[in-house]
């Protein structure tokens, strides 16, 4: 893993911890962010992307997670989905395939055995809906791939 990718992974993990803490304390991620020290620009962007569109993102999760109410999801899964769907909806320069891959990897590290498949399915569904709506992420860079983490 190159240095830039490793740094972004650490930034995602930091943002994920903030999302998790916010959910546990039942406060906004921005409120937790304001209490934290030394948060990277990228971590803050992930939190702000969700905060700017929280209702929309939760609605997307609810409609994509058929049979699962957002409140019944494990907190860490909900946090990953909120963070990475926020990134998909933002003007991120990260390719969609990379965002999905990161979400799946975070789920495999921090959540239950079946969470990576669950997260992958929801993220793939969201990307398909965005593509159908004509929302494209044209920022295909060197870490971009046409294959998404679909299992």
Shape, please?
A: globular
Distance between the termini: 22 Å
The major β-sheet equals: none
Instruction: Count the beta strands.
Output: 0
Strand content: under 5%
> How many helical elements?
7
H/E topology pattern: HHHHHHH
CATH superfamily caption: NusB-like
- Mean pLDDT value: 87
CATH topology grouping = N-utilizing Substance Protein B Homolog, Chain A
Helix/strand-derived category reads: mainly alpha
Main CATH class: Mainly Alpha
Rg result: 14 Å
Residues in helices, as a percent range:
55-70%
Low-pLDDT sequence parts: 138-151
CATH architecture: Orthogonal Bundle
- Tally of structural domains: 1
Report on this structure.
By secondary structure, the protein is an all-alpha fold. The chain has a single domain (3-132), classed as NusB-like (N-utilizing Substance Protein B Homolog, Chain A), CATH 1.10.940.10. It contains seven helices and no strands. The chain has helices spanning 3-25, 29-35, 41-52, 54-64, 75-89, 96-110, 115-132. It is globular.
Can you summarize this structure?
The protein is mostly helical and 151 residues long. The protein has helices at residues 3-25, 29-35, 41-52, 54-64, 75-89, 96-110, 115-132.
What secondary-structure arrangement, pairings included, does this model have?
Elements: H1 3-25, H2 29-35, H3 41-52, H4 54-64, H5 75-89, H6 96-110, H7 115-132
Helix pairs in contact: 1-2, 1-3, 1-5, 3-5, 4-5, 5-6, 5-7, 6-7
